[in-house]
Amino acid sequence: MSAQLQVSIAYRPPVAVLALMGELDLATADVLAASAADLIGRGHVNLVVDTSGLRFCDSSGLEAICEAGERATRAGGSMRLLAVRGTLERVLEITRPEHRFRPEGGEGTWAATAADPAQRWRPAGTPRAHGRTAAGRFTGRGPLTARVTAGR
Q1: Does residue 132 sit within a domain?
Q2: 4, 6, 64, 89 - which has most CB atoms within 10 Å?
Q3: Where are the annotated segments for Disordered (predicted)?
Q4: How many domains does the chain have?
Q5: Which of 1, 61, 5 shows the shortest CA–CA distance to 29?
């Protein structure tokens, strides 16, 4: 059976949303890393990663997530994870001392904390649930600008 990861990217100013579908592991982590690096390189430094379609995440996937969060904060932005549950939630909890992601506001939202609190991003005047359904999925019908698939 072939494992794969699809990354769909949509722009919802002031953030770029990366929706993950499939498995994030050693064979597919580079897809997330490349997608995040490309967005940040083009100036989209505030990232939201919707993990509602993620079926599995191992340590390589966690490393790709953490590296993307670090890259975003170094560029003056931030990264948030939405709909964190299952394997990814367990991995984040177990490895909490080793990364900057912390639970934020419930409903499976985790945020990468910045070294300087002034670097933290939050849309001014926006309620936490803005743009999400109760299940944590992003709402709206913005243009799908990219779809990347990796398989093994």
Answers
A1: no
A2: 64
A3: 121-140
A4: 1
A5: 61
Which pLDDT band holds residue 99 (cuts at 50, 70, 90)?
confident
Measured between alpha carbons, how far is 120 from 132 in angstroms, rounded to an integer?
Answer: 20
Taking the C-alpha atoms of 36, 83, 28 and 45 in order, what is their torsion angle to the nearest 10 degrees? 0
Is 77 a member of any domain?
yes
- Segments forming the whole domain that contains residue 11: 7-118
CB within 8 Å of 38: residues ≥ 6 apart: none
pTM for the model stands at 0.71
Residue type, 146: A
Contacts of 98 (CB under 8 A, 6+ apart): none
- The CATH number that applies at residue 62 is 3.30.750.24
Q: Are 75 and 40 in contact (CB under 8 A)?
A: yes
Backbone angles phi, psi at 141, to 5 degrees: -125, 40
